Amino acid sequence: MPQSPAIITATTAIARERAGRRDQGPHPRHPRPALPDDAPDVYEAILLAPGESKIDVEVDTRLPSAAIFTFHKEDHTLGNMLRHRLLKTAHVIFAAYRVPHPLTPEFQLRVQTDGEVTPRQAVINASEALIKDLGILSREFTKEYELRKAANAANQQQQNTAE
Q: Model's pTM, two decimal places?
């Protein structure tokens, strides 16, 4: 559904720009494939529409302390990380995810706990732990990158002085 120019938000504009929808033509060596007229815009796979929720929760009545979470505009990356983190949690009995269709950007996460914590709280705790782990990874990567950059600069300077 196209939006009027007055309603386009900053995030939509950024997503369109990053998706390559600029007024510039394609690179001569790498032309963009022609999209059919009814193809959805690329940014629709990552941005939520107004009023669309990120996560839907459905209580699973067949099992005690179980729920199915549907994550919209996400894929295997988040699904696998959450599943893995949930399985490390003490009170989680079962955690699995599935992507209902490869062309739909969503996945379903099924979680069953032992009853001491709710499935919702288990997913929240796993998400917080995952954010913490990714923060540590980012800091360690940045630190290693800066150290290697400094070491390469020192090696370059030694080579220049030796010549």
A: 0.69
